[in-house]
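Section: Multi-chain targets

For targets with more than one molecule, the full set of components is provided together so that the structure can be written out for the assembly as a whole rather than chain by chain. Components appear in the order listed by the source. The example entry contains two components.
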Amino acid sequence: MTEKTKEKILVVDDEENIRHLLRLAFEEDFEVLEAVDGMDAFEKAVREKPDIILSDIMMPRLDGYGLYRKVRSRPETSSVPFIFVSAKKDVEERVVGLEMGADDYITKPFSVKELKARIRSMTRKFRDLDERGSLKGLLKEVDLVDIIQLIEMGRKTGVLLVESPSGDGSIFFDQGLPIRAEIGKWSGVPAFIELLTLREGRFRLDQRSVQVEANIPRSRGQELVMEGVRLCDEMREAQRNTPPLDSVLIPGETQAKTGGDLALLVGLFQGGRTISDAVDMMELPPHRFFPLLDEAISRGYLAGQTDEGKKAELLRKIKATLEKL
Amino acid sequence: MIRYLILSPSEEARQAFLGRLFSTFELAPRGGGEKTTLNVKGGDLEIVGAGRPEKLFEMTRKLLENGVQLDGILVLIPSGDEKSWAESRRISSWILENRMPLSIKSWVFGDLSDLDKETARKALLTLVTEHEKVLGK
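Its structure, encoded as tokens over all components, is:
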């Protein structure tokens, strides 16, 4: 009996510790190839034709985004599943943790288990898409970015339907390119990017012919996935930096310049307001709102409420609750 | 969290107040008072009931001097109870002298039937409004 050939995984990271960790994690199930940066990875991807690429984002010479573009532009590598490992900050934290000799390096800060599950899920989805022509699943188990990459690589035509606590949404694809997106009050490119940020809910891909009016320029199709990944990273980074949604913010001591979204955002917090209320009021999708909020706080345009302010806010809620008793 | 004290020499009055407004409250052992919590997004309102005839001032002073968080006091005074009325005024003066960021309101009732749900709600809302004024200063 011949032994089944292992699938090849190309691990791209400029940190030797990370590559070593990933090799240990995957060598049982995969033939592990390593690359030290985007340029090295691209050469190896063309030569070795890996079954999946796992790439860091921030690297010298050619970063993960650049690698993704190059890989997608070459016919022989354009359909290789591609996973971005993490944002820059996470990598830095992770490496520090490893260098310090942390005992829990496997799951914290770097979760190999999660990564393996994601790769298994992605390769399984690939098979499903090829064999059954349909796809469905939960967003907490698989990133929509991965699904969109599958659709793009497979040049699929159909509609990706999403049900989530933020509302129901859809993305129409023609030959792998997103041509129309909608979710809640957003449509077009903002809706497409908003959909990529979802982490709860479920999705279903119906492969069928689509005859809809496009609200995404065809020329932006592939670029949009990249832009979405970048904006998702930025939004999550900003969310990590900003207080919880129920926090009340007030204008800080530094005054924002008049005009523009930043001044508009600061103006919303006059007299104190929770972040979640501001999200609802501001006509900006979350991927634009949170980086803007992060900027306003870091520049001192917005500040946390004083203890007295917090109590006054709580009193307003208590009054409202008492009146309903 | 915000904590208010319902202070009254009448245990029945405190319990009628809390029971009719919130439907439920806990009793401390050995007549040590009552407690109920109103859950509100972003924090809770805890209301404790306490008091004994002629001990209203001393009890309040001890609580505050021992660092117990109190944001407001509602004194429920039976009509004609001059001693409790005088104690309520003494508490107000003492809070003022010690510059404590604390609101206080007195509410006089005739008999227990006066402390119906609507009256209890109105009395508590008066205290909340007073508290807002204190915070605004």
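Chain B has a mean pLDDT of 92.
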